[in-house]
Amino acid sequence: MALMPDRLPAGEIELCRWHSHYVDEINAAVESSYPELHRWMAWAQTRPTGEAMSAVIADGVASFEADREWQYVLREVASDELVGGAGLHRRVGPDGLEIGYWVRTDRTDRTDRTDRGYATSAARALTDAAVALPLGFERVEIHMDQANLASAAVPRKLGYRLVLEEDREVRAPGHSGRGFIRAVERSSWLQQS
């Protein structure tokens, strides 16, 4: 049985563990946001197919069960629509976890001030869950390209501190070659909660 719950409530959204029945919804959400995702996400450099997404989700389901990483879809509570994805990843060393997230473009339009804060809500819920894990993780990190101002705003809103500015590989058209790593220590998060 996996250490993380199948569902995490997060205000106007709920994080729901990946499942094979989400393939078509994830593909539709990625397709509707492809220009923006392609700009920032290394995994979105080619348009996904149903077959490729099925394989990615099958791997994600197995990783969740094995407690290697935990992937979720974001579902809007009011509409029950899939509006993005988020996950906890074990790729920052033995005592840390990294949060990744994306939100469908039609839910993040800043031109008419309709940004709903879904990425922030998802990152908050994942941080809460990460620090509660009984695995000895001492910090949670969020990595982003410095040019991705929307993504960079999320950890700042949550009180993550800037721990490193670094040169990074350019893996998507919007990347600048410079990155931020923001982190919060488990003890600090628990004190502010």
CATH third-level topology: Aminopeptidase
Decide which structural class fits the backbone.
alpha+beta
Total strands: 8
Major β-sheet annotation: 8 strands, mixed
CATH class: Alpha Beta
Radius of gyration: 16 Å
CATH superfamily: Gcn5-related N-acetyltransferase (GNAT)
What percent of the residues sit in helical stretches (DSSP H or I)? 25-40%
Unreliable stretches covering 5 or more consecutive residues: none
The overall average pLDDT, rounded, is 92
Number of domains: 1
Side by side, the strands of the main sheet go 1-2-3-4-5-6-8-7
Give the count of helical stretches. 6
Write the CATH architecture name: 3-Layer(aba) Sandwich
List the helices and strands in order: EEHHHEEEHEHEEH
Percentage of residues in strands: 25-35%
Shape: globular
Task: Describe the fold and architecture.
With 193 residues, the protein is an alpha+beta fold. It has one domain: Aminopeptidase (3-Layer(aba) Sandwich). Helices cover 33% and strands 28% of the residues. The protein has 6 helices and 8 strands, in the order ββαααβββαβαββα. The chain has helices at residues 23-32, 34-40, 50-65, 118-132, 149-157, 186-192, and strands at 7-10, 13-17, 69-76, 82-89, 96-103, 139-145, 161-167, 178-185. The chain has an 8-stranded mixed β-sheet with strand order 1-2-3-4-5-6-8-7, sandwiched between helices. α1 packs across α3 (50-65). The longest helix is centred in the first third of the chain and has 16 residues, at 50-65. The relative contact order is 0.16.
How is this fold's topology laid out?
Layout lengths: L6 E4 L2 E5 L5 H10 L1 H7 L9 H16 L3 E8 L5 E8 L6 E8 L14 H15 L6 E7 L3 H9 L3 E7 L10 E8 H7 L1
Parallel strand pairs: 5-6
Antiparallel strand pairs: 1-2, 2-3, 3-4, 4-5, 6-8, 7-8
Helix pairs in contact: 1-3
